Every structure is written in structure tokens, then in C-alpha cells.
Amino acid sequence: MQNNNDKQKQRWLAVGLLVLVVAIFGSAVLVPLVGEYLALSEEKEALEFKLAQYQRILATKNTVMAAVESLKGQQDQQGYFINQETDALASAEMQELLKKTIVEAGGQLSSTQVVPSTNNKLDFDSINVRVRMTANSEVLRTVLHTLETTAPFIVIDQIDLRPLRGTRNPVTRQLELSNSLSVNFQAVSFMRKKPE
Description:
Order of helices and strands: HHHEEHEEEE
CATH class of the largest domain: Alpha Beta
CATH topology of the largest domain: Alpha-Beta Plaits
Helix content: 55-70%
Number of domains: 2
CATH architecture of the largest domain: 2-Layer Sandwich
Strand content: 15-25%
Shape: rod-shaped
CATH superfamily of the largest domain: Ribosomal protein S6/Translation elongation factor EF1B
């Protein structure tokens, strides 16, 4: 009977060792594998959610692109940009517009000079023209108002106003004040970049 008891103990010991080996194997191998599977499953769900979002965004791409093209067409019709093929032609058009505006308002145009624009990464180039003119304050107001409310869109930048020195009356030898101003400013307009 003792032999049977020893065999029974050995069997239970063997079963216990087997359970212990399975438990160690399970905790060392299976638990990390199950954990990894759950983590990957969670990551997969997150990626599927992002994919669904991107697919919804892509589904609206054609609508958005059509709206952008429509807006570009509206801007072209409104004439906000100078519509010329080259910077030189755009500069010449702008100089002619400035000259016409100043002369029609009653001012005297002294000079216009094209200022090289810095190349930007936007969809348009800036056309910069430096202007020197002589005018009284009313003429200057008219010129600035006309330039800022006309098409193409023109921004007045770096304006410098200086009163002109008065002239001496030959009879009284008194200095007569002048209402004229020497005006320097930079006019900036924009031209769409042509596709290369």
C-alpha cells in the first residue's frame, strides 16, 4: 500500500510539475502574446477609424476643388489681380494706371520706378512700383482713394509726405507758403503666377 501511496504522490507531483510548467509557459509566452494581440487589435481599430476619416475627406475632394476653381474664376472676373503674361507687362500696366490716376486727379507725376519683387511661394507675384509725385492735399486724397478703390487691387505702402518749400514774392520779398506736397510711395499690386 505504501508503494501505491508513493506512486500516487509521484503522480500528483508529476501533475503539479506539469501544471507549474504550463503556468510558467503560459505566463512567459502566452500572456505576452495575448497582450500583444490585444494591443495590435486596438491599433488596427484606430487605423481603421483614421482610414474611414481620410476616405470621407477624399470623398469631398472633388467638391472642394470645384469650389476653389469657382472662387478663382470669380476673382478673375472681379479683376483683383493684374491679368498679364509677364512681370514686365504687369509693371507697365500698373505704371500706366498710376500715371492716368495722378494726372486725372490734377497731380504732377515726377517718376515711376519698378521695384524688383521678392519671389514668394504663394500663387501670385507682387508687382511693386515706386512713385514720386507733386500734389496738394486734396489731389493726394483723390489719388489715394482712387487707387485703393479701383481694380486691380493696389496697396499703398511706405508713403512719405514732405511740404514743398514756398516761393519768395519778388515785390515784398516775403516767403509765400505753398500748399503742395512732395509725395513718395510704393504701390503694390498682384499678378497670378502662370503655370510652368
